[in-house]
Amino acid sequence: MKRHSTGKKFHRIKGLKKADPNAIISQTPKQIEDFIENLKSQGSLIKKVKYAYFQTKNGLKYPGLIATEPIVPNDTLVTLPRQTLLTTKQAFESPLKPIFLEYPQFFSPQFHSKWEYHQILAFLLYEYQRGAESKWYHMIVNFPKDVDYAVYWNTEDLELLKDDNIIKSARKNLVELLVTFQTLRYITDKFPNLFKPGVVTMDNTIWIHTSIVTRCFGGQGLKYVTMVPFCELFNHECADVCYDLEQQDNSTRYNYEFMTKKLVHGQHNDDELSITSSENSQLSEDDMSDSEFVSGEYNQYIEFDFDEFSQNSIRNFEDNMSFMQKTQIRNEELIKMRKEFNIKMNIQKDVFQLAIDCKAFLFQNIDFGDNFSIFFLEQIFYKLDTLIQQYFSADKSSYEVREEINKIKNHCNLYQNYWYSFQNQILKRPIQQKYNIFAQKIGKRPKRNIFSMEQILSQPVDRNCDYYTPIFKQENFKNLLMRTRDPFEKGAQVYFCYSRLSNRKMLLKYGMALEYNKYDSAFLRVEFFKYIKNKVGLWIIHRFKLNKLKRFKLKHIIPPYEFIVFCKLIYWNSNVHSVDTIFKIQDLQLERKALSLALEILLEQNSKFKETVEDLEQQLLDKSLGYHQYFAVVYRLEKLRIYRRNIYLINIIIIVLDKMMNGVPFEQASERTEYDFDFYETNRYILRKYFDQLKWAIYQSK
Description:
Layout: H1 6-14, H2 30-41, E1 45-46, E2 49-55, E3 61-67, E4 75-81, E5 86-87, H3 88-92, H4 97-102, H5 104-107, H6 115-130, H7 137-141, H8 155-159, H9 164-189, H10 202-215, E6 216-219, E7 222-227, E8 235-236, E9 241-246, H11 256-259, H12 306-326, H13 331-365, H14 373-392, H15 398-426, H16 453-457, E10 479-484, E11 495-496, H17 503-510, E12 521-527, H18 535-543, E13 549-555, H19 561-571, H20 580-583, H21 588-606, H22 613-619, H23 627-661, H24 666-669, H25 680-686, H26 688-701
Helix pairs in contact: 6-10, 12-13, 13-14, 13-15, 14-15, 14-18, 19-21, 21-23, 22-23, 23-26
């Protein structure tokens, strides 16, 4: 069966891998020619690609690599011997080693998360001052001087993105770089024998730091942050081009079958790249925080105070006993009454403890700071509170309450299991084991790691501790290879997939954004307070200072499953619905209500955009736009396209569901709708898992 994935559809729209008629093949700049010759003299091989210039839709030029002849799967385009690569370990074992040993607060992983970047930054500045004597001279002189990623954009250009959160993140990154520069200059000033005056300047630091951030490699078998010469000339796209490591015995990580797509173990979705330039970066793609947390107290909910209740009960009992003693009731009767009272108190304590244990289980095992579990928790807490009230007011027996609490515990266990499967299998957020610790999001809040120079260097150092030897391991591979699973026509631009990068991350790291980027995302932020039904839910939110908004990541390649679950839990009733209806399609009426709410919220948020997809598409043709303006338009355009895509997907689901609930067979119900346009096959491919569940639910209901 032919696949119609989003990636394939976007490739066709963009003409990816096809010859580019607007490419400009001119004489390769002499500095780059010298660089290539230097690499070849060290045993490097470069095949089938050449330096060229390409153009955006409005004619802006940018450099890249063009295919000089047809490229087929399993081609190796670049071979670089290990000695041509610059790694953190090489930087450490350089003449700068005394500096690294003296200031581990800045250069070791025990103190600073950016330690590798700091070491390579210091090393490249040191090598830069050596000029042509440096082994790395050709790589350094080819670092571009036109620094242009969003961290350095001026305020006016950043505001073109119309996204306060990305502006906030860019400013945060700039402050971090300023602290890095101040700290590095302070340290290098202590070593005038190693660094000449005027080398560690702000301009040089920005230049070298930018080259490291935008050009370094990591993961895929590389043990350290690595600068890979020449390969930085590949531009980024969602193409299946990767790097591989050739071992001393000539074996590689990826075999022939894999590279030619004849056999792909475990790959069922073409929208998941088989290979990326880094390890799976799940949950780190958008590492900026735009969270606002609830503050203040909520006093309208009062937990049942068993201690106060028991003290009042004991006091009342003792008062009654005193009165009875005065009425000359026999001691045997009084002893019997005291015994019965103690038994009753113990039973009450046991029942109350059962309810408390059930709440504790939820706190310890459910991530109630996620995007939807608060709705489950509020119902369970409300149910437990109601049972306690009913028991202590004698409306229910201890047996009845115990039975119901046991049922609730079973529901909680089921919810945990379904939640775990949903995170792993549907959302693809790998969780190695089920949560067994307090797991709400207050413990996951991003750390404020912007230190001043004084804060960094004032951290105490144990001079007897070896901060480096344990982290440096020997790399034994022979060559780094740039390989492709994708074919490229002669005259096509040849791309490399850096990683699963959203446009947000690309702007912050590379200063560019991609049209039809299948890994792009847009955030839907929902004020969820108005959907909380019980006071206990609001109390939990305030008690643990949860996020004010629920933030859902909308994507091109999958339906908004998490958002649908959120909407479903708003209508879910623990007295009516089973737990599996939350994460599976079981109750069709509940599903329909959730989809309607999801569509309503999406349309409401989409209406707040002041631009349209069509307007922005026209703006991309405007030749007066500069690079910043052009990529800002792409950023805004893709956000609107993602919103539109998700609105269309929800509409399609509703139409198909309504038809099937009215008895129309799936094949007929799932025919092209007014929301499919020319994405019909792709939409059905994206929705296939959802529709499989829907068909099963319809079958079960008959």
